[in-house]
């Protein structure tokens, strides 16, 4: 359903007779379908309205306005969620699509809008050892750089042996992680 209409005498055409989309006039505020304006209430609604005005370039933004009816789309929704996070209002895309009206979105925000806490590290500390200074430089290499180094190893490694090893590893959860503890790089192999 279009959110705005513009009445034209004739469609603008290009020299070859096709519709000239760039010459079509944009609807002004009076031609957009909208609800009766109601000013945003509360700090959350006021902050959201300011972000919407900036992102959508629409004046004024009322508490009953819908993000998508004002010209928002999925890519702008991602930007909106990030701007909300920067302003201290934590939400996600699902909340926006579920409550696209300004008042409904502001009401869906939790009062203690905190970020989701990451689970504790489940890697046991025993079996870890400090890596050598020579190995520290390897942690900054890209996958392509590692592959280039591996390709220069004399004798190489037969593919058949590699695939056999990987089949064994797939059955058990095997991983190698590298992290720093107290500014000392640590190498852990599980």
Structure characterization notes:
This protein is mainly alpha-helical. It has two domains: 34-108, Non-ribosomal Peptide Synthetase Peptidyl Carrier Protein, Chain A (Orthogonal Bundle), CATH 1.10.1200.10; 129-189, no CATH class. Helix content is 35%, strand content 7%. It contains seven helices and three strands, in the order ααααβαααββ. Strands 1-3-2 form a three-stranded antiparallel beta sheet, with no helix packed on it. Strand 2 and strand 3 form a beta hairpin. Helix 1 (42-56) packs across helix 2 and helix 1 (42-56) crosses helix 4. It is elongated, with a radius of gyration of 28 Å. The mean pLDDT is 76.
Q: Summed up, what is this model?
A:
This is Linear gramicidin synthase subunit B. With 190 residues, this protein is mainly alpha-helical. It contains 7 helices and 3 strands, in the order H-H-H-H-E-H-H-H-E-E.
């Amino acid at each position: 359903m279009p959110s705005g209409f513009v009445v034209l005498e004739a469609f603008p055409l290009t020299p070859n007779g096709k519709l000239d989309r760039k010459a079509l006039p944009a609807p002004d505020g009076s031609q957009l379908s909208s609800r009766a304006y109601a000013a945003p209430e509360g700090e959350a609604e006021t902050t959201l309205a300011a972000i919407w005005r900036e992102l959508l370039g629409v004046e004024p933004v009322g508490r009953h306005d819908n993000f998508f009816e004002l010209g928002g789309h999925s890519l702008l929704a991602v930007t909106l969620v990030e701007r909300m996070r920067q302003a201290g209002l934590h939400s996600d895309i699902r909340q926006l699509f579920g409550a696209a009206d300004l008042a409904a979105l502001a009401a869906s925000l939790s009062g203690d809008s905190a970020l989701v806490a990451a689970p504790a590290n489940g890697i046991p500390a025993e079996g870890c050892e400090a890596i050598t200074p020579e190995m520290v430089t390897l942690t900054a290499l890209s996958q392509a750089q590692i592959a280039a180094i591996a390709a220069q190893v004399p004798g190489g490694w037969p593919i058949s042996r590699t695939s056999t090893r990987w089949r064994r590893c797939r059955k058990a959860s095997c991983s190698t992680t590298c992290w720093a503890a107290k500014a000392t790089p640590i190498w852990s192999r599980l």
